[in-house]
């Protein structure tokens, strides 16, 4: 890509991020309008997105983006002004254009080449944009050259900037004569003649200068805020004429600017002198003073004037200026003020700071350590029996918890950010499938960890596509059973007991219990005599290699099956369950923890070691029953509860078996009692990645460091429960046969 | 920041001390002030040591005041020029118009 | 003392690039993301010598911003550079009527912006 200094590279990064946000906004607005009809506010938002991208791309010299967005902007401008309609075809075109810009930016970021595919898409879209715009020739963005053409054009037609053509007898020197009469409103317009003079010095040398104060009224009469200044300047520069004229671009409409080569043809000076308000002789002397004319040249000029023109009456400066006086538009205040206050508060909320994700991770990591240290601190303070110390340690602990909450909140994003990609996915998928499907999204305001959101996006995408493909029936079939032809996919998010629940639901046919069972049987996943609950059968679709689609379609069923979805969800300590009612639809419910880095841990003792059970799994703690019924079971409120002796699982030899406890844990719908040597209480726990040593130990998810510095393994409850059921099922099997 | 105007009569001579920005924001008030003093005094010295900025509007007032003083036979002089004042006067080649001695200090340009 | 320029634009990258160019030339630069923010930044800053404002912004656009600004005695004569595109002739006129007499046409190179600012104030 380009070679940039670090500052510009950082700015370019900002541009990429900002452009992606803008493209997303553009897409959302377009999709909304496709559904609900066009509205000016959203058309404006789309226009502004394209406009901002174009403007910033220009700063980085990304000409392709500028060129492309320029065409896009033209079409949007016409739509905005009502010349063109926002037809469905145009929406599709605009969406593709957004994708194309995104694709270009992605390629830029990854330094991928602009290949044939990209270029043909580029041409196709430009042609479509052209067609949508109509055959009218489009102006290209104005470059510096075009700018000047425009400038000279207006000049010829109307402006007070007169440029006198120099003829071939021009002196070859790079000396110029500049004649300036600033407009009366120059100061009011925020312009200072002195600044222009200083700028001139930056592009050349002022070789001579006379300040003209002829127009300055007497002190009692003058308006101190009006400008009465004029200058005659001898100027030497390597800059070309256009560049010098460009200096006065901002005042060209209100002021009189003459630029001619020094010592150029006398006639040109004469013409200028005649056009200026001061007395000809006086002005002539000034020109000599600044070195633009020799006195000999002046004499010749004045002689020439007497011969040719006797009626050289000039319009006084004052008259010209009064004509050009700007009218200040009164500002409507009052009514706007209240509206403004509201906007101000909104604006305050919108002030965001971009932070590097890795910096944030580091902060959260440190806070995690702080939580542990604070827990240890409080522990030791408790041992000292010094009330004041314990009190202060408790206070520190409370503050640390607040810091932790605050730090974690920094990583949180609104679920609507996660959902925002889906309208487009549903729209495009529905088109490919030839189905009419709308998307509903609920749960805005629910927040989740950003890294979790990233990991959950693909599984969600898969579930949505799957529901559209397999869940929603074709329109005829829907109508037959009395459903509306349009299907509905809904995304819900909500907080639920320390975690987040995200649901993908559809109003389709529901899962076909028999079909799944048949398929599982074919694949050898189950045996014919197994008695399975609905839940257990539905769970089979998450088995590797399971696919019930009659034919493999382009949308789902590409081998990347539901098993991958489940793995992805479990990798973020989440779980998925399915609810389905035949003929009414299905719900895929994903339970996720709030964050990936800190959990509330429930500390238990196995023999002499401390283990951690994630508190979210813990339902209750009981004393180990003195009287045992069936081996491996205990009675809990008249229900049998399977027991799992953790000491046995991890090969611990417990010394004192007299005061054991049972921790009731739950995963999904399964519940189990874990037998432990003792309960140590709950504590905030920072999850640390496991060392290689633990990786192969089943039943351990990760580890944490305790306040006293010991490492404590964190138990992987879902795996432990599954293993237990698998083992007991097997033994039950062998027992029966 | 704006322009601060202080006046002091010293041995029949009015000393007007300007401090701050001699610019468009100060122009109207300064014109009013100069208009009055030029009519009332025979000798006026404008001290410019603490002028941090001068723009065209500020310069224009000084020119108008000088013109008015000449017309009324009042002696008006600029003194103690700050760097900003010298720069502006030299840029516009107005130093000779006022004709007051300019004390060049080290940081001032030629 | 360096002159202060306020850059009001909803594009963070534009503000960043303009900031780099102007700071490199010796100006102080403060940024605002829209008109409302711009007014807040002006209220919180001792003196701003020049204002660069986009036209098309959410919340409060550049036209309204300049109109409001020009009502304030302390910014009545402060130069304003309006950022427009060539497609926005109408907006440019509105901006000029509101008091933004200088303009730079988007897209522009950082050097063009620096030149425009330098014409109006030196650092």
TrEMBL record, chain C:
Residue list for modification 4-aspartylphosphate: 54
Pfam families with a match to the protein in the record: Response_reg
Annotated signal sequence range: none
Residue ranges constituting the Response regulatory domain according to the UniProt record: 4-121
Keywords: Phosphoprotein
Positions of transmembrane segments: none
This protein's name: Response regulator
Species, as recorded: Acidithiobacillus sulfurivorans
């Amino acid at each position: 890509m380009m070679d940039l200094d670090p500052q510009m590279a950082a700015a370019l990064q900002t541009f990429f991020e900002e452009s992606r946000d803008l493209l997303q906004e553009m897409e959302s607005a377009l999709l909304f309008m496709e559904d609900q009809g066009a509205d000016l506010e959203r058309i404006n938002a789309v226009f502004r997105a394209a406009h901002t991208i174009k403007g910033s791309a220009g700063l980085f010299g990304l000409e392709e983006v500028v060129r492309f967005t320029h065409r896009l902007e033209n079409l949007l401008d016409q739509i905005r002004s009502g010349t063109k309609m926002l037809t469905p075809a145009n929406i599709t075109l605009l969406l593709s254009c957004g994708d194309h810009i995104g694709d270009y930016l992605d390629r830029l970021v990854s330094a991928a080449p602009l290949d044939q595919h990209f270029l043909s898409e580029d041409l196709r879209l430009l042609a479509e944009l052209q067609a949508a715009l109509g055959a009218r020739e489009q102006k290209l963005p104005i470059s510096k050259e075009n700018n000047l053409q425009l400038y000279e054009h207006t000049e010829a037609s109307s402006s007070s900037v007169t440029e006198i053509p120099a003829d071939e007898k021009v002196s070859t020197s790079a000396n110029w004569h500049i004649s300036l009469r600033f407009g009366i409103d120059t100061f009011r317009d925020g312009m200072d003649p002195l600044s222009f003079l200083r700028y001139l010095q930056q592009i050349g040398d002022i070789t001579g200068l006379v300040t003209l104060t002829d127009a300055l009224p007497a002190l009692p009469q003058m308006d101190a805020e009006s400008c009465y200044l004029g200058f005659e300047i001898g100027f030497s520069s390597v800059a070309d004429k256009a560049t010098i004229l460009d200096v006065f671009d901002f005042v060209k409409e209100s002021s009189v600017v003459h630029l001619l080569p020094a010592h150029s043809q006398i006639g040109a000076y004469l013409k200028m002198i005649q056009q200026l308000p001061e007395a000809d002789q006086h002005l002539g002397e000034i020109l000599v003073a600044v070195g633009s004319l020799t006195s000999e040249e002046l004499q010749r000029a004045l002689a020439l004037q007497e011969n040719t023109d006797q009626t050289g009456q000039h319009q006084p400066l004052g008259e010209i200026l009064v004509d050009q006086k700007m009218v200040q538009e009164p500002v409507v205040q009052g009514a706007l003020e209240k509206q403004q206050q509201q906007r101000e508060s909104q604006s305050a909320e919108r002030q965001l700071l971009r932070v590097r994700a890795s910096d944030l991770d580091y902060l959260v990591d440190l806070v995690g350590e702080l939580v542990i240290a604070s827990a240890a601190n409080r522990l030791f303070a408790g041992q000292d029996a010094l009330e004041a110390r314990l009190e202060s340690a408790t206070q520190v602990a409370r503050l640390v918890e607040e810091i932790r909450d605050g730090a974690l909140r920094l990583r949180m994003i609104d679920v609507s950010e996660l959902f925002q990609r889906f309208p487009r996915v549903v729209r495009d998928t529905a088109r490919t499938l030839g189905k009419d499907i709308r998307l509903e999204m609920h749960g805005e305001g629910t927040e989740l960890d950003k890294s979790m959101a990233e990991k959950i996006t693909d599984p969600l995408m898969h579930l949505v596509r799957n529901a559209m493909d397999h869940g929603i029936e074709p329109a005829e079939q829907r109508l037959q059973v009395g459903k509306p032809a349009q299907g509905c996919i809904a995304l819900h998010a909500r907080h639920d007991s320390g975690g987040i629940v995200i649901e993908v639901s559809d109003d389709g046919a529901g899962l076909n219990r028999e079909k799944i069972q048949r398929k599982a049987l074919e694949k050898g996943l189950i045996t014919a005599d197994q008695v399975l609950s609905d839940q257990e059968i539905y769970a089979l679709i998450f088995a590797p290699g399971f696919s019930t689609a009659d034919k493999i379609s382009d949308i789902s069923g590409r081998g990347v099956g539901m098993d991958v979805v489940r793995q992805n969800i479990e990798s973020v300590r989440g779980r998925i369950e399915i609810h389905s009612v035949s003929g009414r639809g299905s719900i895929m419910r994903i339970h996720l923890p709030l964050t990936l880095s800190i959990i509330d841990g429930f500390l238990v003792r196995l023999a002499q070691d401390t283990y951690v059970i994630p508190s979210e799994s813990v339902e209750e703690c009981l004393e180990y029953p003195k009287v045992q019924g069936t081996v491996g079971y205990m009675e809990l409120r008249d229900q049998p509860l399977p027991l799992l002796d953790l000491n046995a699982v991890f090969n611990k030899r417990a010394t004192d078996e007299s005061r054991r406890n049972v921790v009731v844990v739950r995963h999904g719908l399964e519940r189990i009692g874990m037998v432990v040597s003792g309960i140590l209480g709950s504590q905030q726990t920072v999850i640390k990645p496991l060392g290689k040593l633990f990786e192969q130990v089943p039943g351990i998810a990760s580890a944490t460091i305790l306040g006293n510095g010991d490492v404590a393994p964190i138990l992987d409850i879902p795996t432990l429960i599954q293993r237990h059921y698998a083992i007991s099922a097997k033994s039950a099997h062998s027992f029966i046969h | 920041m704006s322009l601060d105007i202080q006046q002091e009569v010293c041995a029949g001579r009015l000393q007007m001390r300007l401090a701050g920005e001699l610019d468009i924001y100060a122009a109207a008030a300064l014109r009013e002030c100069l208009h009055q003093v030029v009519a009332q005094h025979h000798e006026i010295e404008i001290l410019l040591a603490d002028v941090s900025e001068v723009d065209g509007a500020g310069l224009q007032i000084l020119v108008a005041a000088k013109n008015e003083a000449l017309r009324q036979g009042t002696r008006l002089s600029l003194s103690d020029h700050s760097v900003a004042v010298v720069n502006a006067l030299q840029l516009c080649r107005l130093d000779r118009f006022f004709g007051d001695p300019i004390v060049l200090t080290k940081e001032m340009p030629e | 003392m360096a002159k202060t320029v306020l850059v009001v634009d909803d594009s963070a990258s534009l503000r960043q690039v303009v900031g780099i160019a102007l700071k490199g030339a010796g100006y102080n630069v403060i940024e605002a993301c829209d008109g409302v923010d711009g007014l807040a930044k002006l209220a919180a800053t001792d003196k701003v010598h020049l204002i660069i404002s986009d036209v098309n912004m959410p919340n409060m656009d550049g036209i309204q911003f300049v109109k409001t600004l020009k009502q304030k005695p302390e910014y009545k004569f402060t130069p304003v550079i309006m950022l427009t595109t060539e497609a926005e002739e109408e907006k440019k006129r509105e901006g000029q009527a509101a008091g933004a007499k200088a303009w730079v046409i988007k897209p522009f190179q950082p050097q063009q912006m620096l030149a425009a600012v330098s014409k109006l104030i030196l650092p």
